[in-house]
Structures are given as C-alpha cells and as structure tokens.
Amino acid sequence: MRSIQFTLLPAPDILKRDVECFRIAHYSGEEGFALTVSPNGMPGIVLQQNNGQSPVETIITPSRSTGSIPTVYIYGQTTEPGVMNHKKGPYTTVQVIFKPHALQTLLGINASALTHRLVELHEFSAHSLPEQLLEATNEQEQIALLTSFLVAQIKQEKPRDTLVEESLRLIHQHIGAIQVKSLLDHLNISERQFERRFSQTVGVPPQLYIRVKRFNEAVRLMKTGQFEALTAVAHALGFHDQSHFIRDIKAFAGMTPTNLSHNADDFHHGQAGYFYLA
C-alpha cells in the first residue's frame, strides 16, 4: 500500500510533556482499503477528511463495530486490534499523538471515560475549532490550530498526577522486566490506590498497560531481526512462558507471533504506534 505516506513531526517544546508527536498521513490512491491498527497505549486527536467527509466507513474490533465516524474526534485507550475500513478516494489525516496521561492533564477528564471510545472534538473545545480545522488550506495550518488549542489547555494548569507519570517513565524504561509489584514498592503506594489513580489518568489498569507496551516492544524487536527465534523475543521481554507470549500477541495483533513475525516489515512503526496495511 505504497499510496499511503506517513510523516511524523515532533511536538513543540511547550507541548513535549504531554504530546508525543504529530502524524500526517496522505493516501493518494482511489481504491478503498482496510487499515489494521494495534493498541499502542496512547490516546489522541484525529482530523481526517476527503472533501469535508470522513474517509472511514467503519471501525471494527472483536467486541464492537462503530460507524458514522466524525471528521474530527478525540479517542481514548484501546486494548484490541481494530480494522478501519476506508472508503474509495484519496484522503489526508492529521493526528495528535498524546502521552498516555494527557487526557487528564490537558483536558481534565477521567481517561477511563474515553477507553474504547471516540467523541467529537467540539465536546472539549470551542465549537468553532473543528470548522476552522476543516477550512484550513493545508496541514501546517491545521497543526498550528491544534497546537494553539493544546497550549491554551496547558495554560489552564489542570492537576497532574506526578506519581502516575513517574510510574509511566519506569514502565517505558524497564518494559522487559517491570512488574506492578515493583512499581508499588518503588512508589510506596497501595495496589488499590495505585490502580485507581493509574486508571483515572491513563484509562486502563497498570497491568493491562504494561501488557500493551510489552506487545509494542515485541513488534519492534521482531522488526529489527536481531533475534533468530521468537522464543528469544519472549525471553527478552520477560514473558512467563511461550503460551503467555502467544496469548498477548494474538490479543493485541489479531494474529499469532509466527504470522506477525512474517508480516513485521509491513507494520508502520514510529512514535505513533503500529499500523498494518491489509
């Protein structure tokens, strides 16, 4: 699917604590297609259009099917692979990839309220912003509008849970070895309180988030080709056994580790996560 071109742009310094990056996707083909998206642990904002209309017909996951996709929306965490069925014709997507905690720190909402959901942007912004985004003449103007909106959110100084942000740093730094118990010991907090605060800030429980990020790292390692056997990938990431590894790969990729390893080069990998062009 060479008709799709992805561009990743860094967040400006003022947003780097809460925004991972911006991602632009251009599809120049005429045929409809399916895009399989695997969980990456990061929520965000999407602007996607073809002549003012959403190019996505449906989003299908193992547990739900969503139609009538808005042109501009905010999405939360997901823990399932999803298939985005695109209509015929070219389109452009501008996407803001948030840090895992940013729904709370930027928008002041309980992140778990958006888990497995997408909602129109106007519910969280001035009603004119979505219209301004659609009327902008290019992606640079759209990114400037989104940046101004997010900077305004930062200036409102919403509460941050620095303990959860520290736990995220530790998870990302030690993804092959981290366990919830070691986080509890390091942070000196009870399991019940930590799970409540983590779910409110990130949108999913800490153990589930660790599983998603460990899956992401497994795909990255497969793409490097540095391991001759999948068992070595599983061992490097601290999976208890091969069945545990197989179960998580199938849960998040919708395919077995063997099939995933054969298709690893087809996964678009970057700060924005994993997108498989079926």
Detailed description of the structure:
There is one protein chain. By secondary structure, this protein is of the alpha+beta class. It is built from ten helices and twelve strands. The chain has a six-stranded antiparallel β-sheet with strand order 1-2-9-4-7-10. A six-stranded antiparallel β-sheet has the order 6-5-8-3-12-11, with helices on one face. It is globular. The model has no long low-confidence stretch (mean pLDDT 91).
Brief account:
The longest helix is centred in the last third of the chain and has 19 residues. With 278 residues, this protein is of the alpha+beta class.
What descriptive keywords fit this protein?
six-stranded antiparallel beta sheet, 12 strands, alpha+beta, 278 residues, single chain, globular
Map the helices and strands.
Elements: E1 4-10, E2 19-27, E3 33-38, E4 44-49, E5 56-61, E6 64-67, E7 72-75, E8 82-86, E9 91-98, H1 102-107, E10 118-120, H2 128-135, H3 139-155, H4 162-173, H5 180-187, H6 191-202, H7 206-224, H8 230-236, H9 242-253, H10 257-263, E11 267-270, E12 273-277
Helix pairs in contact: 2-3
